[in-house]
């Protein structure tokens, strides 16, 4: 029996077909499987967020280099989602391609997005509480905890437009990373496809809704610790933490979630569908019309 090995990456046309197949598979998951896989994805992104914070919190390197290193570390989240298998809301925005091709219904689309977002929320919040009980945030005289509060405060201080625009750019890069993974045949190729887009979005300071479900609640918990606040006040006495509350959390989450949908579903999913699939459909319709015209003329 002969096996044919192909080391060439998939073409964009093949990638779109693979996305459609994946969309159908995701749309037909049972609610329990979808929820459990989504909880895993939320936990993976939260672990990546924790890894990012640990690596950068006491860096004395230039800001750009520090952000670059942090972005590389945060890439862990999408690597785990793609390679281990999980349902991430932001990546699942690409299901819009299956909807546009009519292989996924609008109801299935909303079901997947809704359940994956809920599961991501549960998974990320679970890691928040686990990390809080580890007491690791007391590292280096509570400076790690102070950094977490600073990150959370910076996010809740964003205006609606700032959060929206940063989130659009973020998920454009996240969905491009997922899109590139559909060109890959090997684990190594998928990891390589993930690293640069994810590093770029983190280093640039863009906003990811599921990551923020870790960052902001963790900051809310540590804001109550006097030792953490003492370290924060000595390091950053002018930091505004007045918006670091539940209202600020859900306000940030609203703008960032909306922006993530626009960036992933429209700027990547819909755009590539119109570039690759729509011309083929128009060409197919023209051919069918010509065949019908030929048949009628022959009669």
Give a structural overview:
The structure is a single chain. This protein has one domain (12-281): Glycerol uptake facilitator protein, CATH 1.20.1080.10. By secondary structure, it is an all-alpha fold. It is 78% helix and 0% strand. The chain has twelve helices and no strands. The chain has helices at 12-27, 31-56, 63-74, 76-85, 96-100, 106-134, 139-156, 160-181, 187-204, 209-222, 226-235, 246-298. The chain is elongated and about 65 Å long.
Low-confidence stretches: 1-5
CATH class reads Mainly Alpha
Work out the oligomeric state of the chains in this entry. Answer: single chain
Largest sheet: none
Average residue-wise pLDDT: 92
Shape: elongated
Q: Could you state the order of secondary-structure elements as H and E?
A: HHHHHHHHHHHH
Number of domains: 1
Helix content: over 70%
CATH topology: Glycerol uptake facilitator protein
Class from secondary-structure proportions = mainly alpha
End-to-end Cα distance, whole Å, is 51 Å
CATH architecture assignment name: Up-down Bundle
In CATH terms, the superfamily is Glycerol uptake facilitator protein
Number of helices: 12
What fraction of residues sit in β-strands? under 5%
Using only C-alpha atoms, the radius of gyration works out to 22 Å
Question: How many strands?
Answer: 0
């Amino acid at each position: 029996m002969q096996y044919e090995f192909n080391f060439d990456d998939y073409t964009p046309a093949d990638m779109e077909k693979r996305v459609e197949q994946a969309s159908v598979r995701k749309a037909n998951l049972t609610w329990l499987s979808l929820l459990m896989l989504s909880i895993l994805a939320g936990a993976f992104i939260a672990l990546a967020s924790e890894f990012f914070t640990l690596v950068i919190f006491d860096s004395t390197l230039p800001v750009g280099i520090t952000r670059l290193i942090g972005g590389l570390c945060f890439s862990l989240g999408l690597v785990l989602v793609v390679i281990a298998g999980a349902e991430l809301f932001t990546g699942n925005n690409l299901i819009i391609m299956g909807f546009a091709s009519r292989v996924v219904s609008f109801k299935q689309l909303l079901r997947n997005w809704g359940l994956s977002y809920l599961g991501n929320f549960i998974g990320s919040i679970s890691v928040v509480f686990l990390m809080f009980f580890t007491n690791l945030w007391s590292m280096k005289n509570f400076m790690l905890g102070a950094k977490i509060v600073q990150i959370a405060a910076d996010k809740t201080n964003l205006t609606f437009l700032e959060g929206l625009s940063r989130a659009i750019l973020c998920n454009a890069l996240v969905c491009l990373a997922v899109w590139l993974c559909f060109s890959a045949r090997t684990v190594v190729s998928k990891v390589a496809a993930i690293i640069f887009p994810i590093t770029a979005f983190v280093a640039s300071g863009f906003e990811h809704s599921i990551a923020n479900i870790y960052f902001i609640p963790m900051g809310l918990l540590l804001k109550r610790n006097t030792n953490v606040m003492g370290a924060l006040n000595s390091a950053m006495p002018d930091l505004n933490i007045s918006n670091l509350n539940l209202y600020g959390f859900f306000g940030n989450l609203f703008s960032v979630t909306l922006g993530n949908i626009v960036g992933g579903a429209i700027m990547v999913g819909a755009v590539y569908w119109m570039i690759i699939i729509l011309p083929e459909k128009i060409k197919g319709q023209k051919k069918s019309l010509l065949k019908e015209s030929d048949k009628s003329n022959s009669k």
